[in-house]
Specification:
The protein is an alpha+beta fold. It has helices spanning about 25-40, 60-70, 90-95, 120, and strands spanning about 15, 25, 60, 70-75, 80, 80-85, 85-90, 105, 115.
């Protein structure tokens, strides 16, 4: 799939591509891959085609980023019969997720898990 990262297999975030064959990766995934190879003193290569690649050679895959950001997604948050009904462009999902009332969060003091909308009552 053109929108998927070849490392994590999720929808690419800040898509980058291998300079020789155009394989797509999340920016954070490919940078971590290259960092690991460097730490292991291995030649830095594309995880798909194994062609040599350096961080400076990676190119932004703008078309993937643009298509992804316009794609309509549904919020996956909610549990115990409570679902979020938010639907919108992927490019707005992070902002929504950070405020989603039915996203599961942990109390910073006791670590109890709860829905964001229940945080106030918990304190």
């Amino acid at each position: 799939d053109e929108l998927s990262c070849n490392i994590c297999k999720l929808v690419c975030r800040d898509a980058m591509q291998c300079p020789t064959n155009g394989h797509a990766f999340c920016n954070s995934c490919i940078l971590e891959w290259l960092r690991q190879q460097q730490l292991e003193r291995k030649e830095q290569t594309c995880p798909e085609c194994r062609d040599p690649v350096e961080k400076e050679q990676l190119k932004s895959k703008r078309m993937v980023n643009n298509i992804r950001d316009r794609s309509i997604v549904k919020c996956p948050h909610g549990n115990k019969g409570t679902r979020c009904d938010w639907t919108g462009p992927f490019g707005s999902y992070d902002r929504h997720s950070n405020a989603c009332p039915v996203k599961e969060v942990s109390c910073p003091k006791c670590r109890e898990k709860m829905l964001r909308q229940d945080e106030e009552d918990h304190r």
